[in-house]
Design goal:
The chain is mainly α and 105 residues long. It has four helices and no strands.
């Protein structure tokens, strides 16, 4: 019988978890870095590349988050604060997923 590493009580092979963790973590990390570090004008409400417009496009599909999004879109300062905090949370979450912190992968 071959010696394959298998998670206890799970049939997922361990060699798939690191690339999966890296790919998912990179999506979060890259999303946050693009907004917060590489192109900070995306978080500037006076810029033409401000990402607040994406919230307007997402609004019809927001479901239970619709009241919160309407509140943030009506208050420009709250909109900018929310998007800035969300960008940095994306960076932190991406790093945590990549290194496996607070995950079961």
């Amino acid at each position: 019988m071959s010696k394959e590493k298998i998670n206890e009580g799970n049939s997922t092979r361990m060699e798939y978890l690191l690339p999966l963790r890296f790919a998912v973590g990179w999506m979060f990390l890259d999303g946050g870095l693009r907004k917060a570090v590489l192109k900070p004008s995306k978080l500037d409400p006076n810029s033409s590349s401000f990402v607040g417009g994406k919230l307007v496009n997402f609004l019809p599909h927001a479901g239970p988050f619709k009241p919160f999004l309407i509140m943030t879109l009506e208050n420009r300062a709250l909109d900018v604060a929310f998007l800035t905090i969300f960008s940095y949370v994306e960076i932190i979450a991406g790093l945590f997923i990549i290194i496996g912190l607070l995950t079961r992968l």
